[in-house]
Fold this sequence. Notes:
Elements lengths: L21 H28 L10 H31 L5 H5 L7 H27 L3 H17 L5
Amino acid sequence: MKVKVFTLDFRFIWPFFRLFSFERFIQFLVYIPVFAIFFLLNNSKIFASNRRPEARLSGGKAFFSNWYHNALSMVGGILIIVLIEYIPFFLGIGPGADLLFTPTFGGPFMSLLIVFVPQVLVFSLLCTYIYKKTGNVFTGALLVASMACWIVTGGSAIL
């Protein structure tokens, strides 16, 4: 019996960190302000909302407790959408967005969400670690914004 989750090929939708050509570098420079603003606002809100007494403690248990809350805040909404999309799909009924709405909302847009979840989890891990080390959100937000922008521009199609 084959498990359908293990038959997915992530390579075609998650090209990750490709080297830049001149055109991709210019595209990166155009996109990076938008990514930086998003992650600065996102991390500021999440880390301010998730202030808990354990945030000041050191050690692995305190770190993973903080990371768990930050990760859930960053990826929670997308995870719900992924579950709505993929539970009916893996049951053989069809893509959830196509069933609930129209095929306009499904297709390639929904197939990207399943690889977005682990990406955001890694980003939340980095942001939490850097926030614990530096005490501010700016360093982690700018690092993650650069990485996210690199992924998008490195994997984009240029004619």
